[in-house]
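Sequence dictates fold. Next comes a concrete instance:
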Amino acid sequence: MKQKIGKLRVNTSNPKDIFLKIYKDYEYKFIFESKDVSQIYGRSSLIGVDPVLKITGKNKSFKIDILNNRGNEYLKSLNKTSQESGNISMIIKHILETFKTNDKTLLGLYGTFSYDFIRLFEDIGDTLPDNYVNDFTLFLYDTFISFDHLRDNAEIIIYRENKKVIKENLTEISNKLKKQSENPEYKIKNPYFSLSEKQYEDLVKTAKGYTRKGDLFEVVFSNILKSEFEGDPFGLYIRYSKENPSPYLFFFDLGNEQLVGASPEMMVRYENGIVNLRPISGTIKRGENPIEDHENMLKLLMDQKEKSELDMLIDLGRNDLSRVCKPGVKITDYRFVEKYSKVMHTVAHVSGELEEGYTALDALISCLNAGTLTGAPKIAAMKIIEKHEKERRGYYGGTIGYLTFSGEMDTGIIIRTAHIKDGQLRFQVGATLLNDSKPKKEYQETINKAQAFLNTFI
């Protein structure tokens, strides 16, 4: 299905300003922004509106919804008979293969994979009750506004079947951008953590028991901040992105639920034949002034427990990539310190050349779920999480991003993220727990990670 591309320059290069003018005109939309912390992260932002298909899957079934007239043509190109049985994730691979192109394109699948997507590939137990969160919710987008922050410009980019429709649609979107925008308002009420300080500290002691016995090297137990939510979720995104600028800032409106995130961590990126991971572990709060900030950074770098956390995640990442990459997986930026608004972390970069016969989706699946959110060994840690946490994680620890039809992929881990649905908000935080973890310190780490979000409460 060959699509023509249309482009039109936009006068402003501020993504939020543009999104504010158009987001109420569309049921489904997203904005991805990046605040550079290190040069590995992108220097671009992207808005997507008016997708053509919605692809959802959970447990043993998937569904494809046509969202507009353009979606009919895409659906005709899919050979549905080949997807009657088997692992439902194969529908994703089928769509990517059907519309594959050698020309670089933004056309592709944009959306989310939940933490529980892993259940399609691994047995992690089935203790916790099921929830309403899909294993994956993806949209085929063909309408974008792209921002190049290096060149300080922006342009509408659309893919359509003929030039006449391209011209009409570009004009239509351009006219929407002339509207006046309003400041979206919201209110968060009656917040509480699902676990008390003592309950979380008891979880830390439980984790230490597993590591002492040698069942685990480390495990991540989490706590859930819950509240009532009123108003416009995009108002929360505006406030939160200012409080906690991060490499993976996102607002994704899935229609009946929204994700508002300021994630510091890449899940998997694939471009130019190279698969990249950037594991984060080791956390300390920011100082009140530059001197205290520097002292805290040195304390972080000298902490052997924090070093052990990161080293184990590097080993996990190297093993994950070795399944789909050629021999010679590389480690760079070892214990590089990335600073955020309320905390700083140590990170490393793991990369490898993708083996022939594998795709970006294969690389993503091989790395599920991120060790940063599970522990090590990963399958054993996820089984322990299933045994001791009270609710399925849903989006927390899952993945958000895109897979294009030209083969590129960029995904972030869904952490530091609010999930809003039916007037209820969830924001989940965790800590990596080892044998020498101190319960009070680990509980405080979860509060430090949540602090930038807590500052958004109005």
The two ends are 48 Å apart (CA to CA). The longest strand covers residues 218-231. The chain has a mean pLDDT of 92.
